[in-house]
Amino acid sequence: MIKPLRKRGLFALAFFSLIFVSSCNPFSPSGNQKVFRVNLGTEPPSLDWSLATDHVSFNVIANLVVGLAEFDKSLKPAPVVAKSWDILDGGKRIVFHLRDDVAWSDGQKVRAQDFEYSWKRLLNPKTASEYAYILFDILNAQEYHEGKITDERLVGVKAAGDWTLQVQLKHPASYFLSITTFEVTYPQRQDIIEKFGSKWTEPGNIVTNGPFLLTSWKHENEIQLSANPNFFLGKPAVEKVEMFMVNEKTTALAMYEQGQLDFLDNHSIPILEKPRLSKVAGFQRVPQLRGYYYGFITDRKPFDDVRVRRAFSMAIDRSVFPKILHGGEQPASSWIPSGMLGHNPRIGLMYNPPEARRLLREAGYPDGKGFPPVTLAYNTDEDHKIVAEAVQGMWKRNLGILVRLENQEWKVYLKKLQTDPPHIFRLGWGADYPDPDNFMKLFTSLSGNNNTRWKNPRYDELLELAAREFNPKRRIRLYDEAQKILCERDIPITPLFTTAESTVLKPRYSGLEYSSMGRLVLKDVKPKESKLPAVSDRQSAKGFWRLAGR
Question: Is the peptide bond preceding residue 422 cis, with omega within 30 degrees of 0?
Answer without folding.
Answer: no
